[in-house]
Prior knowledge:
Blueprint: H1 9-25, H2 33-52, H3 78-91, E1 100-106, E2 109-118, E3 125-131, H4 141-158, E4 166-172, H5 180-188, H6 191-196, E5 197-203, E6 211-214, H7 220-232, E7 237-240, H8 249-254, E8 259-263, H9 285-304, E9 335-337, E10 343-345, H10 353-357, E11 364-368, E12 371-372, H11 376-383, E13 391-399, E14 404-405, E15 411-412, E16 415-423
Parallel strand pairs: 3-4, 3-5, 5-8, 6-7
Antiparallel strand pairs: 1-2, 2-4, 6-8, 9-10, 10-11, 11-12, 11-13, 13-16, 14-15
Amino acid sequence: MSGAKPYNNRKWGRRCRRVALRTENAGVSVPSRRRARFICVLVSSMLLLAIASPALELPAVGQSADILDMVVQPPASNAARRECTAETFIRAGALPTDISYHPFWRQGVSYNNIVLAIPGAGEGVFIVGAHTDTQPVGTGAVDNWSGCMMLASLYGRFRTEHLNNTWIFVAFAAEEHGQHGSRAFTTSLPKETRARVRAMINLECLGVSHLRTWANASADALEDVLQTAAAESGADFSRDVLFGYSADSFTFTRVGIPSITVHSLAPDDLKLINGPDDQPSCIHRERLDEELRVFTRYIQLLDARTEPIPDTDAEDKLRQAPTSLMERAGGGDLLASAAGAGVVVRNLPRNGAEFRAGVRDGDVVQAVRGYPVETVGDLSPLLLTLHKGMEVPITIRRPAEDPVTSGEGEKVPAFVEKTLIVKY
């Protein structure tokens, strides 16, 4: 190859061993010596293939370019997304030796979490994470290339700062099919290291709307500090309840680590998750800039906090609303997209909250909570934001009792629109 230096496998092996030693000193368990040797050989082979093949192209962004600009260029494959994420950390100022690759296996396939640490003066540890993978629909720009680029941006912002706590930045693999990357990471943490972790911050789906937390899956104390950071940054902030989804933060909550998931999806944006509408055009650069300012202040406030962070979550007690419209939504039995905008209700159960509120068969749902509904795909995510005890406005359109006369003198059906309050 013209202009390429000879590849030094022995040198790469020494580098892998140094990374393993540094990881071990940080309190994270590492594979056995035999397995580590195998990993070094495997990574060496992958690097040789990458050098020899021009198939993988990273986004054409210069070293001095803003990392957030790369949000509009999400790589197509999950393997390319992981590699490009590592490259982005280097563009943010990391040295190749600053990056640790934590391998794990899932159904015979090897994956790597990408891990970097900014050492702090004290014993406390904070973890900031985002998942690199996406589903094979849409581009995955929102879910979750936006989170990956914010993760690298925050690392670059703080890598030279003198911090009170150690901050670990993790790009998790294999989140979409069961949070396997975050599970492998938490499993690898020794008990003494896990006890030092004060909180985990999960970045998801950013740059679409204003910042929101997944309220029924986030520690109240972490939400309070984020709300303060948003107020000081002049940014909007809300706490949204959501059911039916999962995130890497769940893994940390299960092992007793306070966690928070931060995103920017309004209820009518939830259809972007794993959907074909997930495109770079959904992301607004001014929103990303605002979120970067908020997260910067958020890390500063958390790092300065000396009191413990409780893992209590008041919204965790909320339960999903028993909506009849969700029972068979999308199955062609209960609901169907109308010829125009809206969703037609059919065979509505008489014992449901919607029926008691006045919804009837043949009604066309136009909006839920003020968010417009055009198809079943719009309605289903909105219903996942409802919990027991809510009073929800649902706007419907139904035929009027009396037809109207057209300009040609013909009798044509008339429709009336009304908003019903459904109590769950």
